Structure formats: structure tokens, C-alpha cells
């Protein structure tokens, strides 16, 4: 294989990881309620409104956050396990760490309340979750 083929595989692998993350976030953000409008991403405002209206119960919240965790984890694995173009990990959770959606939900709500000036209504939730994971599990 040539060097250009190798870098092409790295780019394809990178794009695949990011595509998985984007699909997971968008699919998980789609509401079950027929009256809700479909939007491309879960935003701070939408997340808070769905919780306040009781539309975002434990099951849907769990599915959304699990899909988000899975997308982030697959991206993390893609970045750290490639042989030809390894990148820094996006977070460094200890082995056997279990991410619990209810705990992340509580942490998200605390984060929104503590820093409303930072999290505008149209801010996507996915990067906020990633930031929380990076602060909770920093890489040395």
C-alpha cells in the first residue's frame, strides 16, 4: 500500500467515527412526540423544555445519553486505536467505568443552571456532555 492510500484510510476512518457520532446524536435527539418539530440537534433549550414538559422521561433520556456516550466512545476508540494515524484520546475514563444517564442528566442540569451565560438556548448538548466527560476524566 502506498503512503497516499494509508492517509486515505486514516481520513476515511476519521470521517467514519465522526459520522457515527453525528448519526447517534441526531437519531437520539428525535422526539417521540408527534407534535414536536424535528430539529437537527438536541439543544440546551430543547433538552430543558422536554424535561420540564415530562416528554423526556428516564427511558428517552437514557436512550439519548447512551447513544451520545456510544458515539463519543466510538470516536475515542477510532482516535486512539488506529495504527497509521493515532490521535490523542478525547477523554481518559478508567477501565470498567460505567456512565449512568441519570447522573449525566443531573450534571447537565447543574451545568446549565451554573453557567447560563455560556449555554445559550441554541447550544448543542453533545459538546457539553463531551466537555463534562473531559473534565471528569482528564488525560495526563
How would you describe what is shown here?
This protein has 140 residues and is mainly α. The chain has one domain. It is 61% helix and 0% strand. α1 packs antiparallel against α3 and α3 crosses α4 (101-114). The radius of gyration is 17 Å and the shape is globular. Residues 1-7 and 32-36 have low confidence and may be disordered.
Please outline what is shown here.
The chain is an all-alpha fold. 61% of the residues lie in helices and 0% in strands. Helix 1 (3-29) packs antiparallel against helix 3 and helix 3 (58-81) crosses helix 4.
The share of residues in extended strands comes to under 5%
Q: What is the typical, i.e. mean, pLDDT?
A: 75
What sort of overall outline do the alpha carbons produce when their principal axes are compared?
globular
Number of domains: 1
**CA distance, first residue to last residue:** 34 Å
The Cα radius of gyration reads 17 Å
Tally of contiguous helical segments:
5
Compressed to H and E, one letter per element, the order equals HHHHH
Instruction: Describe the sheet with the most strands.
Output: none
Helix-and-strand structural type: mainly alpha
Q: What is the helix fraction of residues, given as a range?
A: 55-70%
Number of strands: 0
Unreliable spans are 1-7, 32-36
